[in-house]
User: Which sequence fits this backbone?
């Protein structure tokens, strides 16, 4: 196998729940040795959704903790803190997502760790960051969705505030943290210097919204809700009912509209002065939408999707996620990797989300049982394992 | 100034609109020399929203193209292709987001470029990837939102399919591509080997949904819409009306509920058997919501937010994005960087979305006029600039 990007990189991982574990999952996929430090009760995600899970590995936990080792240490016990410090000295990266100040109180703040390992890359993930007036405030994904403006961007004009229906800020923050850490490792490779990274969910959310926050900062452009109507404001870049199911069209330019009209068997739309050009179509958007809906009625969304694909019209049936995940197209995309639960049950986990030709990501090791690797990791430190 | 992570890294950037330019914007922020290759009419984002923009730099264009140089070349002209090949030989990274096959037809595919520069990192961004049955299909953000399942995750149970109201897939794809490129540059630094990266918006969308796609793959857990009710299913992790405006609460655990009850002046909720523990509160969610709404009515969302912050209750008023962007907390977060339009008008652009203590990101150079750097870049090649 070829050399992995993060081969030989040791990550000491004090994170729990979602943003931090996603960050270190991406590092593990690139070949890093991620040592997950857990309390005796473990990451709460081990039991996520309230049901009992075999080996304390819930599906949510499994999906972002495969490829890691688990070590149980008591961060309130002096001897265990001493073990942690020895681990820090042997690590390249520390990641934590406690509330700001907690690692310092534990005696594991950046300056302490840096003294143990001068070229350490230390990444703190928090809701609002390590400074500023909101620093101490508690935060979870939906608090940041609310604070950042994200809840006011989706839905029909005038509709109530609505969050994105899954913890998108946690996820984006995790990937941004993995990116920040990798960038810092590249810089360390080139300069020999370590780094302290302050990753905040609120900052990450703003960055995630760059397509609307950017124009707001650069030109005072205020975002507005527009339902499923696309970024282009073209009335044929929207979602429509069909005879069975919904379909989204991505028809913006004049030649695309001609393709759509032909595919619908409605070439007459091209000669209708109401729809003659992009501006006319926007001015007669309601009438055009009615025409498109009428034309789509005889077939199902999946039938139209296939027909439109043949005609070069950008279109997709609206799928639910479980259906989308089993689309045959994905089979060649290395998106899903084989893994298993500790009891041997086969599962799939997501890969890095892209394909690297010379550095293909192999399946990660299975998600660890709580404390499964405590003895082996401490033995590597040269300590007695029978403490 | 300290050495930047991507100092001395040259990126030849053939991307347009959004996902690709976001990827190379992140590289530019880390110190890369990004050369944006444009046609004589330029990236369509220069004119985005249909209005005339001074120097063909719309707010949308400015916000993701600051820090880059612009070179106009005609990729259908043999002499210009020859210039591009000479640029490739002097570049570390090539990024493109044409439809699969276009770069090959232009004579600029990976194998050709790799022959010119063996350790090249070449990143292709597309809707569905470079292989698979959907490879040739056109795609824009909302098509991928539809295909991936994303449109079925937000909103109240039973509500119509609704996209995330801004091009979230483009953005996530761009950041993931920047991460993939940086990871490959780290691997190149360690091994000397280049890379070919195949980044697809559909794959990226699945990865962005890892919090729901992961449990679906790992345990058959089907996601469901639940309005603003949080990931925890706790009825006090939700959004509520107040006397003026909405507020989101992130109250999940028992001690958090006690803090909330006290902050509301409703300690009686703690002794009410309907709300005694987490399970009881879920079973009596409607009654609890009514109690919370009644308790919140006397004050505004902003007043409650301040009061809850003092009491350690996770809460945020629902803000719109322009309001969120000027929150005083952000002033210390290095989120916004000073830039200007070509005519000197001061603007702000977003930084990388996190703070690196030893590698602070300076303001990028202003977004370029179309072709502003053609002469200087070609001069670096040793060519006549008067062609």
Assistant:
């Amino acid at each position: 196998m070829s050399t992995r990007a993060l081969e030989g990189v040791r990550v000491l991982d004090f994170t729990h729940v979602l943003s931090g574990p996603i960050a270190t999952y991406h590092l593990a996929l690139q070949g890093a040795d991620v040592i997950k430090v857990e309390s005796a009760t473990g990451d709460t995600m081990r039991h996520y959704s309230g049901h009992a899970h075999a080996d304390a590995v819930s599906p949510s936990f499994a999906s972002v903790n495969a490829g890691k080792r688990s070590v149980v240490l008591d961060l309130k016990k002096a001897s265990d803190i001493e073990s942690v410090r020895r681990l820090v000295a042997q690590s390249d990266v520390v990641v934590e997502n406690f509330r700001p100040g907690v690692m310092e109180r534990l005696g594991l703040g950046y300056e302490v760790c840096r003294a143990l390992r001068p070229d350490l890359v230390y990444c703190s993930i928090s809701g609002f960051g390590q400074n500023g007036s909101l620093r101490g405030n508690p935060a979870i994904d939906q608090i940041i969705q609310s604070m950042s403006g994200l809840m006011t961007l989706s839905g029909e004009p005038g509709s109530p505030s609505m969050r994105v229906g899954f913890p998108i800020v946690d996820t984006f923050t995790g990937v941004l943290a993995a990116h920040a850490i990798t960038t810092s490792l590249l810089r360390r490779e080139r300069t020999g210097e370590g780094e302290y990274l302050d990753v905040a969910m609120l900052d990450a959310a703003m960055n995630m919204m760059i397509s609307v926050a950017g124009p707001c900062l650069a030109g005072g452009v205020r975002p507005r809700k527009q339902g499923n109507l696309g970024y282009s404001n073209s009335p044929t870049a929207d979602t429509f009912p069909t005879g069975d199911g919904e379909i989204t069209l991505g028809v913006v330019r004049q030649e695309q509209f001609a393709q759509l009209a032909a595919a619908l068997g409605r070439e007459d739309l091209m000669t209708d002065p109401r729809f003659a050009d992009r501006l006319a179509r926007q001015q007669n958007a309601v009438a055009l939408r009615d025409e498109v809906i009428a034309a789509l009625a005889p077939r199902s969304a999946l039938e139209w999707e296939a027909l439109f694909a043949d005609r070069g019209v950008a279109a997709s049936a609206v799928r639910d996620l479980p259906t989308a995940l089993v689309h045959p197209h994905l089979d060649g995309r290395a998106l899903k990797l084989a893994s298993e639960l500790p009891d041997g049950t086969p599962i799939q986990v997501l890969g890095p989300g892209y394909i690297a030709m010379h550095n293909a990501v192999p399946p990660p090791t299975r998600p660890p049982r709580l404390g499964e690797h405590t003895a082996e990791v401490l033995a590597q430190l040269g300590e007695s394992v029978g403490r």
